[in-house]
Amino acid sequence: MRVCDSARKNLLIVCNEGKEEIMMEFLVELYQWNKALHIIGVISWMAALLYLPRLYVYHCDAEPGSQVSEMLKTMERRLLKVIMTPAMVFALIFGALLLLTSGMGGWGTFWLYLKLIFVTGLLLFHGFLARWRKEFEIDANRRPARFYRVANEIPTLLMIIIVILVVIKPS
Length: 171
Prior knowledge:
- There is one protein chain.
- The protein is mainly α and about 170 residues long.
- It contains six helices and three strands, in the order βββαααααα.
- It has helices spanning about 25-30, 30-60, 65-100, 110-135, 145-150, 155-170, and strands at about 1-5, 10-15, 20-25.
- The chain has a three-stranded antiparallel β-sheet with strand order 1-2-3, with no helix packed on it.
- Helix 2 runs parallel beside helix 4.
């Protein structure tokens, strides 16, 4: 294996039997920054995942078409579109960069696959929250407040499992 010269700064091209594999050295250099930005994105996303169902609980108690109902619709829409979805994308982008960082391990470990399964659970929950918001938007919600109180616990449980997996890294 020999290292080829590259015209691009911070890009290392490794040649192996005629095949070129690109390893982005800048990902290794920026690993700590990527991790910090991933954590910031996750915290922001989780805050919204925990708050939006609470707004739905309040919305269940509001009379459809009332001033309170219309205010909650605005709050729910803004939370989803301005905070929650961008924070999710931010967390996913920097999480993917962490996964792509060569030499930082992970792919050969069982805990990472479990974490990705539970992250998929958060993504599905995000999708359900978006669908439920559309129902509230057109005054078509048929679920009681208790449903959203219970649903509010789902991201908490998923977060606890994910944090334990990342910190303990069970084999």
